[in-house]
TrEMBL record:
Cellular location(s): Cell membrane
Transmembrane stretches, start-end: 26-44, 99-126, 132-152, 159-177, 183-213, 225-244, 314-331, 343-362, 368-390, 402-420, 426-445, 452-473
An annotated Gene Ontology molecular function: pentosyltransferase activity
Region spans: Disordered: 1-24, 489-514
Highest taxon in the source lineage: Bacteria
Protein name as catalogued: 4-amino-4-deoxy-L-arabinose transferase
Organism from which the protein derives: Mycolicibacterium rutilum
Segments forming domain Putative mannosyltransferase YkcA/B-like C-terminal: 523-604
Membrane topology: Multi-pass membrane protein
InterPro entries according to UniProt: LipidA_mod_glycosyltrf_83 (IPR050297), RgtA/B/C-like (IPR038731), YkcA/B-like_C (IPR056785)
Keywords per UniProt: Cell membrane, Glycosyltransferase, Membrane, Transferase, Transmembrane, Transmembrane helix
Domain Glycosyltransferase RgtA/B/C/D-like: from-to ranges: 84-239
Any one of the GO CC terms: plasma membrane
Length: 624
């Protein structure tokens, strides 16, 4: 069933065959080339970013040192506190470190392979609906999205999140073909584990996936509802087992759940990683100039996905995807309820619209790299709509739509490239002129070119993907560190050119201090040291291999440990040193508990200078 079905008088309403379109002879070699190219792009020079985000790297290292730290996603092998996300992504990185030895490359290897897997699954999902050509376009579009190249070479949880969401979409495509309960249950399992990767963000794709099945599955309404209920139950079970494990495990025998207010994983999901992200409680407010820092998403609104903070990360093909979605839904409005193309448009369109709307208007913490969750939907919509519109190129409406997609992509790429004016300045003109020329050929009558029409198709894909591909290759060629990584050219202002508001300072690893590092290496306590917040703690753990307690968690804001707990740790000789400074988080975020601990230490222990850093030996109280 094609997008032009409504203008063909001889089209029937019979649904497409469940097995999907047959593969052409060239499909498998082309797929192999796509996956090989993706692997090279994501694996080449994988260790150049070092530990990437120290926060997650330290937790992955802890998981190689202690199985309880692995299970709970603890920031330290002494199990004081977890990171502020569930541990599924850390499980993969730590297991890789256990197998191959912990290093930057072994930590990031699973992330890169997840990227290759996501491209393969997206190809498979789109191929079953529109054939191998559409699948290849979609897979290439995902692989060549700048923020995808960033996250699949980085150690944030987003790589596994994207892989699992694409896996769920593939399972829904299979489930929709025959109303399969088994495939729907597998989709639910994938989403459940996606929840254990990045919590409620995983569920933003549920409306699109559920709508596609509810509309198009070839059975009665009650059967469709029942099958969706099975998927929902599988989702709850595959996420709920771990929540139950954490809640039932004695709290004094596991690390504190970082980011939560009551040591609860469920509260973390609904609070810090849920309502607070959307409503804005605890998020980054306006900066000195009255505007929200660009690394925290810029101002909420309908234009955020296209703005200076988010635009260059994933929106290169977003206008084309939206045009293709609207045209596709219009052209398939008279097809059978079970038509697979329309079902896929509903699924990927629902994914894109719901996720994009939430990201656009949420008033809490959001970062540019979140947009990687949009990349599979954008890529799939482009692949499906381009292939189906090309099939109907003898008709005016599909031809004009293709031309509009080409021209809009070129114009938008020109605008995005102009935000980094010193980086390959000629590229934006090449893309703009080439796209408009191709659009003119498409609109004027590409169907009259006969076998030479394929040249126009190749030119359209070349100019449509050239800008995003160049940005992606430049992203992969660079190094990216810390929690503020963004895709884009090295040395270019990825936040919008001269005068753009830069991310707040204070994040990042400490300067080298060999004396302090040697001091910690010599300690054999449960925790070699404690310090407020995670920035210095993470850096020191990675440099020394020692366990360092991050008082207050990521930003020092969590009320863990309490003053009484910390005093008991000191009395039991479980923590040796207290290191001053290195908070590194947003100003004003350290908790009163952290302040109380620091004041108690300063009152009862004498300071010493270690390589320019103030350290308190907790085995040597004042007056002893």
């Amino acid at each position: 069933m094609t997008l032009t079905a409504d203008v063909r008088p001889d089209v029937t309403d019979a649904p497409a065959a469940p097995s999907g379109p047959p593969s052409s002879r060239w499909a498998r070699p082309a797929l192999a080339a796509l996956l090989l190219g993706t692997a090279v792009l994501y694996l080449w020079g994988l260790g150049t970013s070092g530990w990437a985000n120290d926060y997650y790297a330290a937790a992955a290292q802890a998981g190689t040192q202690d199985w309880k730290a692995w299970l709970f996603g603890s920031l330290d092998a002494g199990n004081a506190i977890t990171v502020d996300k569930p541990p599924a992504a850390l499980w993969a990185m730590a297991l890789s470190g256990r197998v191959f030895g912990f290093s930057a490359f072994s930590m990031l290897l699973p992330q890169a392979l997840m990227g290759v897997g996501a491209v393969a699954l997206l190809y498979a999902a789109v191929r079953r609906v529109s054939g191998p050509g559409a699948g290849l376009i979609a897979g290439a579009a995902l692989a060549l999205t700048p923020v995808a190249a960033l996250m699949f070479r980085f150690n944030n949880p987003d790589a596994l999140l994207v892989l699992l969401m694409v896996a769920a979409a593939y399972c829904v495509v299979r489930a929709t073909e025959t109303a399969s309960t088994r495939w729907m249950a597998l989709a639910g399992c994938a989403l459940g584990f996606a929840f254990l990767t990045k919590m409620l963000q995983a569920f933003l794709v549920v409306p699109g996936l559920g709508l596609a099945f509810l509309v198009a599955a070839p059975v009665g309404m009650w059967r469709r509802i029942g099958t969706l209920a099975v998927g929902a139950a599988a989702m709850v079970v595959s996420a709920g087992w771990y929540i139950a494990l954490v809640e039932l495990w004695p709290a004094d025998s596991r690390p504190y759940i970082g980011g939560s207010t009551d040591n609860s994983l469920l509260q973390l999901a609904l609070g810090y990683n849920g309502i607070e992200r959307i409503a804005g409680h605890g998020g980054m407010g306006p900066g000195p100039g009255g505007e929200r820092p660009l690394f925290f998403g810029g101002e909420p609104g309908i234009g955020r996905m296209f703005g200076h903070s988010m635009g260059t990360q994933a929106s290169w093909l977003l206008p084309a995807a939206l045009i293709g979605l609207l045209a596709g839904l219009w052209f398939t409005r008279r097809t059978a309820r079970t038509a697979t193309v329309r079902a896929s448009l509903l699924m990927w369109g629902g994914w894109l619209v719901v996720t994009g709307a939430v990201f656009s208007f949420m008033d809490g913490t959001i970062h540019p790299y979140y947009t990687v969750a949009l990349a599979p939907a954008i890529a799939a919509l482009v692949g499906i709509s381009v292939r189906e519109l090309w099939r109907g190129r003898q008709f005016i409406a599909p031809r004009v739509t293709l031309a509009a997609m080409s021209a809009t992509t070129g114009i938008w790429a020109f605008i995005l490239l102009a935000r980094t004016p010193d980086w390959w300045p000629a590229l934006r003109w090449i893309v703009l002129v080439g796209s408009i020329v191709v659009a003119s050929v498409l609109a004027a009558g590409v169907h009259r070119l006969g076998r030479y029409a394929v040249v126009s198709a190749c030119a359209a894909m070349l100019f449509g993907g050239l800008a995003t591909a160049a940005y992606t290759v430049e992203t992969a060629a660079g190094s990216h560190n810390g929690p503020m990584a963004v895709a884009g050219p090295r040395g270019a202002d990825s936040f919008g050119g001269p005068g753009a508001q830069r991310p707040p300072g204070g994040f990042g690893p400490d300067a080298e201090n060999p004396a302090l590092e040697n001091l910690l290496k010599g300690a054999d306590n449960r925790w070699a040291a404690a310090t407020i917040a995670s920035m210095r703690a993470s850096s020191l753990e990675l440099k020394t291999g020692a366990s360092v307690m991050a008082i207050g968690g990521f930003s020092g804001h969590d009320d863990s440990p309490t003053l009484a707990q910390f005093q008991q740790y000191v009395a039991d000789h479980e923590v040796r040193y207290f290191i001053v400074g290195g908070h590194g988080g947003p100003p004003g975020r350290a908790s009163s508990t952290a302040g109380d601990i620091a004041a108690w230490v300063q009152k009862n222990f004498a300071p010493i200078d270690v390589g320019g850093t103030t350290v308190y030996d907790l085995d040597a109280p004042v007056g002893a």
